[in-house]
């Protein structure tokens, strides 16, 4: 049952990508929110560009950057013994990069919205900067960060273009559910396409309800 | 309230010496005053630069000129590029809106400010301070459900729990009703005297000046005009 494999692979890839995008995204968002420099807006544009790039173009960049003939791809292969592209790990990278800007944009906005007087009084009472972040800023920004992470998960789960470019379309190995839906349509298998689409649609609705009801609502 | 008592010229005998220019977009204040142990009120109309001066003492804005020193230790010197971090200035602060952490209990809020000891000792110190400000029953209350007066009591406990040398209060009573305001004034006055610390209180309320001030630094828009007790 390739459909079940594709769903399971999609969920695994999205979950790992969400964790990676969450950790990296929140760290980058924190720096961008606190860093007052023109260079910050350049960095911000670079890290959020996957939102506006066609996914296939993003996938092409990743393929070029991580392919077996690139230095990063060679380093990965010598470290782990197999190439990164056209594997499930490649799908994780594609999903992570696709999800990252959603996390960064939501988290940066949430961190910037934290009342600076509360952070200021924490500093004045002696808390070191990392404690201010841990005890004050991040908990107060948690809802916005959570919403960004949830959207990042939905984006990772739904990614097609970047995933198919970087991980390929190998049934039973790298074929995620969105790619399987595409394959089913190409093969005229309406039932499989319908099932896959319904599952993805249902997950997307659940995530959006979660974002609206849990993260975006006021305490 | 007319006797001129201290200027930066006799700084060797005065604990806190502030002689700074602070510039933020669209506004500049030049402040020059000294403060001894006890309460010094920074008075003047809204927008005269009192709070900005207080933030310079807190270290949350950098002076563009001049120096701030406390007990002979330079906290800021614009010419030499010295700027001691807020965390290292031994300060306590109470803002108009208490700026408590809503997601932590009042007890936790106060314990975070205690600098020494293990968690148990810090909680005990925090309990003691809550008791001293009359907020012991609020220790485990939901912070966001506290009244304005209760919040300011907790904020005062938090400000003092870190054993500050300088206590900064920025319009601390302006959001309180008359009864709470009067109680808080008495509390601040007695605790500052007992702890023998320097307290700078920013206010534009003459009643605060009359009730609290041992010294008054008068501000006009953009500058200090007198320092008297």
**Biggest sheet architecture of chain A:** none
Q: How many angstroms does the end-to-end distance of chain B come to?
A: 5 Å
CATH superfamily of the largest domain in chain B: P-loop containing nucleotide triphosphate hydrolases
Proportion in helices of chain B: 25-40%
Arithmetic mean pLDDT of chain B: 89
The fraction of residues in strands of chain B falls at 25-35%
What is the alpha-carbon Rg of chain B in Å? Answer: 17 Å
Sketch the topology of chain A as an H/E string, one letter per element. HHHHHHHHHHH
Beta-strand percentage range of chain A? under 5%
Q: How many DSSP H or I helices of chain A?
A: 11
Q: Class of the largest domain in chain B, according to the CATH hierarchy?
A: Alpha Beta
Shape of chain A: globular
Uncertain regions spanning at least 5 consecutive residues of chain A: none
Instruction: Name the structural class of chain A.
Output: mainly alpha
Structural class of the helix and strand makeup of chain B? alpha/beta
Q: How many domain units of chain B?
A: 2
The percent of residues in helical segments of chain A reads over 70%
Largest interface: A-B, 18 and 28 residues
CATH architectural category of chain A: Orthogonal Bundle
Q: For the CA atoms, what is the radius of gyration of chain A?
A: 19 Å
The ordered H/E elements of chain B are: EEEHEEEEHHHEHEHEE
